[in-house]
Write a structure and sequence with these properties.
Cathepsin B, Chain A, single chain, 13 helices, globular, 15% strand, alpha+beta, two-stranded antiparallel ribbon, 11-stranded mixed sheet
Length: 402
């Protein structure tokens, strides 16, 4: 009886130890990423694009709001839908003129935001929320479909000519969903037009900003029209080498300027919920002997689970210019999403990550922010938007400035 009691006590105690150990392991996994701040720049609150394809407007606006902060101005809560409204109207005109041979949808690019600021001005959110269709948040599926069917109908109509009324009809649809555009509005006790508001309150010059990328299918240090479907404006980007693109990002952040970031979020290594974006190394040849020995004992399922558990830092792929280009050429890297880089951190292993403000509300681990590793940014960046002042002098001398 005494032996049984002792055996039971040993087994019970061992179970408690194992349970405590498992709980410790679980806690360790939960707190696996430990970030140390390098640069953390001020920005406005995280917004929610909800069920709309308008990330480009939200991220571009966030970038401009941070620019106002950097210049010592009180940041304006811009109306993203004012920008979306003007882009949809002008995109429709171009789509019809090109007989439908243009991508027509909700997507856009950073230069669209600058285009509207330059040509139409701006509105604060309080003057134009764009919610006129019975929803509390942006839900654009119906509007996107209606607009596409409308412009297709204009092109395909059997009259063999275009009427003078179709653009007014388009405005009617946009008015119904987003609201009529105000000619004048009050802001903090003063009356403005959109143009006057952009000039007097916002005070940013759209020509101060450029987009930069890095691809080998165009000459370096020359501008080119980037070939992504949502580039309906045929906007140009400046082409530099990959390491120079990263230098621009780092230099911008270190000088106190944030960065607009167009990227691809379709990879398994991107997790909004966990707030991390990484490119795990899957090639056994690239692992050291210890890692390789352990790796070879795992099943394919176990390898995938470990690579994409987001429990803590993993060894990441070494991204080269060739790997980056291959991803773009093979449609593995596509123009999925626009976000806003506002800082840099490093993890417990010394790996650099970029602090990124998203527009998918605040319901993730880092209250709407995420941390993208240097490898992820090298591989998945479509383009960046920066102030011209952050381009290092040696690089700017090589670039063919307009």
């Amino acid at each position: 009886m005494r032996k049984k009691a002792l055996l039971f006590l040993f087994v019970f105690s061992f179970g408690i130890i194992n349970l405590a150990s498992a709980q410790d392991d679980k806690k360790e996994k939960k707190d696996g990423y430990k970030f140390e701040t390098i640069v953390d720049l001020e920005t406005t609150s995280v917004k929610d694009q909800n069920r709309s394809g308008t990330c480009w407007s939200f991220s571009g606006v966030s970038f401009l709001e941070s620019e106002m902060i950097r210049l010592g101005k009180d940041p304006v809560d811009f109306s993203e839908m004012f920008i979306v409204r003007h882009c949809y109207a002008d995109k429709a005109d171009k789509y019809v003129r090109l007989h439908g041979n243009l991508n027509f949808g909700a997507g856009g690019a950073f230069h669209d935001v600058l285009y509207v600021l330059k040509n139409y001005g701006a509105l604060p959110e309080e003057a134009y929320s764009g919610l006129e269709y019975g929803e509390d948040n942006h839900v654009h599926g119906e509007m996107d479909e209606v607009l596409k069917n409308y412009v297709d109908g204009v092109i395909e109509n059997k009259n063999k000519r275009i009427s003078t009324a179709w653009d007014e009809g388009l405005d009617g649809i946009l008015d119904a969903y987003l609201g009529e555009l105000p000619q004048k509005f009050d802001y903090k006790g003063e009356e403005y037009t959109p143009r006057a508001f952009a000039d007097k309150v916002i005070g940013l010059d759209p020509d101060d900003y450029i987009q930069v990328t890095s691809f080998t299918h165009h000459p370096f240090y020359q501008p080119f029209i980037i070939e992504v479907p949502d580039n309906w404006l045929w906007g140009q980007v400046y082409n530099v080498r990959m390491e120079e693109m990263m230098e621009v990002i780092n230099n911008s952040l270190e000088k106190g300027y944030t960065v607009g970031w167009a990227t691809d979020v379709s990879e398994k290594g991107f997790s909004h919920r966990n707030g991390v974006a990484v490119v795990p190394e899957e090639d056994v040849k690239e692992l050291d002997d210890t890692e390789r020995s352990r790796w070879e004992t795992l099943t394919p399922e176990e390898r995938q689970k470990q690579l994409y558990s987001f429990d803590g830092p993993v060894k990441e792929k070494n991204i080269t210019q060739e790997i980056r280009q291959a991803g773009f050429d093979n449609f593995e890297t596509t123009d999925d999403h626009g976000m806003h880089i506002v800082g840099m951190v490093k993890d417990q292993n010394g790996t650099v990550y970029y602090k990124v403000k998203n527009s998918w509300n605040t319901d993730n681990k880092f209250d709407g922010y995420l941390y993208a590793s240097e490898s992820f940014v090298k591989l998945k960046t479509i383009s960046i938007m920066v102030n011209k002042d952050v381009i290092p002098r040696g690089l700017s001398d090589k670039m063919d400035w307009e």
